[in-house]
Specification:
Number of strands: 10
Shape: globular
Number of domains: 1
Structural class: alpha+beta
Number of helices: 3
Order of helices and strands: EHEEEEHEHEEEE
Helix content: 10-25%
Radius of gyration: 16 Å
Strand order of the largest sheet: 1-3-4-5-2-7-10-9-8-6
CATH architecture: Beta Barrel
């Protein structure tokens, strides 16, 4: 078993005092190689802390992200079959983004991915909106240069982050406190930084507090680059360590 140390910087928060769920999932999933038709399933067991060293235990088929003896997240390869909707054009995504509900009501307004109270270009600024209540949400996204690796491609953990919040807005009819519990995602191709993209989110049904959603990232030609299926859980308040 290999072990790495991971520290999630405060910049990458979701709730005020814990990491964005998709970003944390991407950190846990990163070492795992996947085959055709596979994704990586990540189950979040506790709020991922900020600015604290965590231990990533890496085995051939799975990883565990731990804070001391506490399990924060675990990841493993899993088949992923997800029917993707037809994406809107970039122009239409810009138009839909104007209907982003977070401009009116946002429960986590400093979130790295979707927060409206971030310094300009400090977050991903993915503001996914829709015109019709049951329609998918969509937004444009142009990854900034600081999200790239040495080859100028967007690092996978930022793609996982971008896949996160549109699932919340696509899966819920109105603003409601809910946290990501599970995310199974596949990154098929990492795009270059500063390439205009379209991000979508849509509902896959609800069972009480359990909210099922799907998300995807497309290039301007409509090619799917990454996609995920998600489980969110509605909560009455943020758990200890997250608020």
């Amino acid at each position: 078993m290999d072990v790495e140390e991971i520290v999630i910087d405060r910049r990458f928060c979701g709730p005020p005092n814990s990491a964005n769920g998709g970003y944390a999932c991407g950190c846990a999933a990163g070492p795992l190689e996947i085959g055709e038709g596979e994704g990586v399933r990540v189950d979040l067991r506790a709020p991922p802390p900020l600015d604290r060293p965590m231990r990533l235990e890496i085995e051939a088929d799975a990883t565990r992200l731990c804070l001391g003896e506490q399990l924060i997240a675990q990841a493993r390869r899993e088949p992923l079959e997800l029917e993707l909707p037809t994406p809107p054009s970039l122009d239409e995504a810009h138009a839909l983004s104007k209907h982003y509900i977070g401009f009116e009501t946002h429960l986590l307004e400093t979130c790295f991915v979707c927060g409206t109270k971030r310094a300009e270009h400090d977050g991903l600024e993915i503001f996914a909106g829709r015109r019709e209540p049951d329609a998918p949400v969509a937004a444009p996204w142009t990854p900034a240069a600081d999200l790239g690796d040495a080859e100028g491609l967007v690092e996978a953990r930022y793609l996982w982050a971008a896949l996160d919040c549109p699932g919340y807005f696509g899966g819920l009819a109105k603003a409601e406190l809910a946290l990501l519990a599970r995310m199974t995602a596949r990154v098929a191709r990492r795009p270059p930084v500063e390439e205009p993209l379209v991000v979508m989110g849509w509902s896959r049904g609800r069972e009480g507090r359990k909210i099922h959603a799907g998300t995807a990232i497309f290039d301007a030609a409509g090619e799917a680059l990454a996609w995920s299926q998600q489980l969110w859980v509605a909560v009455d308040r943020l758990p200890d360590g997250a608020s």
